[in-house]
C-alpha cells in the first residue's frame, strides 16, 4: 500500500481538483479535512472521491456519543477509507463511532495533535508528556474497538509496540529541513515509516510547493531510498 495521503487543505473546489489531479499518480490517497469540508460539504467530498483516489475524511468528531454516532451515520454514504474522531471524547463516544461506521471505513482516534507540546498539554490540565498521553489514549482506542490512532512520528514506535496490528496515521511529517509552520512534533517521512506508521499525512510540503507533483515525487523517492 502506498502510504502517502496528501492533505488537500483548501476551501476551493477548483484548487482541490487541481491538487488531486497533480498527486493522483503517486499518492496512496487524499485527505480532506475541516477546511475543505466546511466549505464544500459532503457533496464536495463525493466529487473528489469520484476522481478515484481513496479518501481519508478528517472531521475529528468530538461530541456526546449519540451525536457522534449520528454524524458518522450521515457520513457513511461517502464510504471514506479512514475517518477521524477525537480520543478525548472518551470510551462511550469511541464505541458509538465505531458501531455506526461501515465496516470498510477505518475509524481512527486523534490522540495528541502534532501542533502541541508538553507545555500545551499542561496548559489544558494534562500533566503528562505527549508520549505518555498518546500511549494512554492508544490503549483506550484499542479497547474501544477502533482501528488505530493518529499520533506524531515521535510516538508511533511506542504506540505500535503495544498495539502491533493497529493502524497508525502520522501527520506532522516534513522532509529534512522543511518548514515546520504550526507543527511542533515533527519527523521525516522515512523516519515515520521506519518507526511503524501505516500511512503518512502530508500537506503543505506538497500542496504549497510550486510543483506539487514534483514535491510528492521527491518525497516518494526519499521513502524508497
Ligand atoms: O488528523 C490529522 O490529520 C492531523 C492530526 C494531527 O495531530 N496533526 C495534523 O497536522 N493533522 C492534519 O494533518 C495535516 C498536516 O498538514 P501539513 O502540516 O500541511 O503537512 C493537516 O490537514 C492537519 O489537519
Describe the structure.
- With 225 residues, this protein is an alpha/beta fold.
- The protein has one domain: Aldolase class I (TIM Barrel, Alpha-Beta Barrel), CATH 3.20.20.70.
- The protein is built from 10 helices and 8 strands.
- The protein has an 8-stranded parallel β-barrel with strand order 1-2-3-4-5-6-7-8, surrounded by 4 helices.
- α1 packs across α2 and α3 packs parallel to α4.
- The radius of gyration is 17 Å and the shape is globular.
- It starts with a strand and ends with a helix.
- The relative contact order is 0.15.
- The site of orotidine-5'-monophosphate has 17 residues, from β8.
- Pathway: Pyrimidine metabolism; UMP biosynthesis via de novo pathway; UMP from orotate: step 2/2.
- Belongs to the OMP decarboxylase family. Type 1 subfamily.
The overall strand count is 8
What is bound: which ligands?
Answer: orotidine-5'-monophosphate
| Tally of alpha and pi helices | 10
How does the major sheet shape up? 8 strands, parallel, barrel
- State the fourth-level CATH superfamily: Aldolase class I
Which strand-content bin applies to the residues? 15-25%
Number of domains: 1
Alpha carbon gyration radius = 17 Å
Average pLDDT taken over every residue = 97
CATH class placement: Alpha Beta
Distance between the termini: 17 Å
CATH architecture: Alpha-Beta Barrel
Q: Quote the CATH topology.
A: TIM Barrel
The coarse overall form would be globular
Topology as a string of helices (H) and strands (E): EHEHEHEHEHHEHEHEHH
Organism: Sphingomonas sediminicola
Catalytic activity: orotidine 5'-phosphate + H(+) = UMP + CO2
Function: Catalyzes the decarboxylation of orotidine 5'-monophosphate (OMP) to uridine 5'-monophosphate (UMP).
EC number: 4.1.1.23
